[in-house]
Amino acid sequence: MEIRSKRDLFHYTYAVLHHPAYRAKYEVNLKREFPRLPFYEGFRQWAGWGRTLMDLHLGYEQAAPFPLTREDRKEPVSKQPDLLPDERAKPKRLLDEKPALKPRLKALKDTGEIEIDATTTLRGIPPEAWDYKLGNRSALEWVLDQWKEHKISDPTVAEKFNTYRFADYKEPVIDLLHRVCTVSVETMKIVRAMA
């Protein structure tokens, strides 16, 4: 074994923690205690895989976007209710604003799609992109879950501090999903090479 620096050992460790055989063999132990690492043959190769994985995972925002197909449909026409007297007093610009579409943020693994909202769907997600897991769900599902709108039960907090609306972040989230898809696919290529 040829260890040139502490960083090489760190990269080796990162690679081993992604090895599917290691994860399967020590699945129960990894939930309860600190990992114990075996020494695999070809330390330099493992350190190289670990360095590549680390660069991918730390630089996910700079990854090249995966060429997913974006399908935008026309907004569904909804009937506007008649205005109440107090709503007629609102400034015209507030009345003209369209209500934001409710986000779906739903992963459809079997068809390789992600429904963003009623008008936007991303298609062409390869099956291996769903295989890269962060805990018990894929990286793509993790991103979708983090950007969902959550209902706040406390009325004071909901009224004064709940200003998050997915519609304000729709385009950056779509860009992030493209990049996370690339990271997931590239990660799974390295993980499969380990086997």
Notes on the protein architecture:
This protein has 195 residues and is an alpha+beta fold. Helix content is 46%, strand content 9%. It folds into two domains: 53 residues, no CATH class; 121 residues, no CATH class. The chain contains nine helices and six strands. The strands form two sheets. Strands 1-4-3-2 form a four-stranded antiparallel beta sheet, with helices on one face. About 3% of the residues have low confidence.
Helices and strands in order:
Elements: H1 6-18, H2 20-25, H3 27-32, H4 43-58, E1 69-72, H5 85-88, H6 92-96, E2 106-108, E3 113-115, E4 120-123, E5 133-134, E6 137-138, H7 139-146, H8 155-160, H9 170-194
Antiparallel strand pairs: 1-4, 2-3, 3-4, 5-6
Please supply descriptive tags for the structure shown above:
elongated, alpha+beta
